Amino acid sequence: MATRPSLNDFEVLSFDCYGTLIDWETGLLEALAPLLARAPTPPTRDEVFEAYALAESEAEEKYPAEPYPQILSRVWLDLASHWNVPDDPVSRQAFAGSVGDWPAFPDTAEALERLKRRYKLIILSNVDRASFARTNRRLGVEFDRVITAQDLGSYKPDPRNFEALVTEVERMGIRREKLLHVAQSLYHDHVPAQAMGLSTAWIDRRSGKAAGGATRRPKADVRPDFVFPGLAALADAIRQSTR
């Protein structure tokens, strides 16, 4: 039986951003409000997230080279059709450009500042460079590397994104065994990361809520090496492990 890793084993942390550091479900609901308000039968919160998760993943699979704002535009059109709402190009454009407006979780900036004192930090995100640059102002730290779907021409859970992550870590002179991938989405992150042999920490932002949310459910069984309810809990656990 494999020995569970220790938090002291790692030198670099890679992060999914949206859903892990950024409260993307709150951001999505706010950005989708003009569409939802016009639906003949307003969907519930869980119905919104379930429909969004399917539409987004299908768009990313079909159009992996498109930047994320174009993916969001396609998602808007899909959801509008799903709920029998006429397209509003102005609202659709606003939704496509809304990523930088989505709020950070309350514990994100302070926890990242603590983690930065000990680890190299990397972003591995399913967005474009311009969107992440706006988001980064909310996060309070300078990341050592930023890898986006736009850089790679593919979206997580594509294995190529995690291959690129490992390559970048090795370019930094750090072995993959010293990398811990930190993410909320089991579907986008934990399944492909563990398939690459990486250790993972699950930031279970939806603890106590319905499974899934705005991400699809994983297609394979997955057991993260660590589970925390938030980023501050991860930073606390690391501090305690070094005492």
Distance between the termini: 28 Å
Radius of gyration: 18 Å
Query: Average pLDDT, to the nearest integer?
Result: 94
Helix content: 40-55%
CATH topology of the largest domain: Rossmann fold
Would you kindly provide a brief summary of this structure?
With 243 residues, the chain is α/β, with parallel strands linked by helices. The chain is built from 10 helices and 6 strands.
Q: Can you characterise this structure?
A:
The protein has 243 residues and is of the alpha/beta class. The chain has 2 domains: 7-23 and 104-241, Rossmann fold (3-Layer(aba) Sandwich), CATH 3.40.50; 29-101, DNA polymerase, domain 1 (Orthogonal Bundle). Helix content is 46%, strand content 11%. The chain has a 6-stranded parallel sheet, with helices on both faces. Helix 3 packs across helix 4 and helix 5 packs parallel to helix 10 (231-241).
Tell me the layout of helices and strands.
Layout: E1 12-15, H1 24-36, H2 45-62, H3 68-82, H4 89-96, H5 108-116, E2 120-125, H6 129-139, E3 145-148, H7 149-152, H8 159-171, E4 179-183, H9 186-195, E5 199-203, E6 226-228, H10 231-241
Parallel strand pairs: 1-2, 1-4, 2-3, 4-5, 5-6
Features:
alpha/beta; Rossmann fold; globular; 10 helices
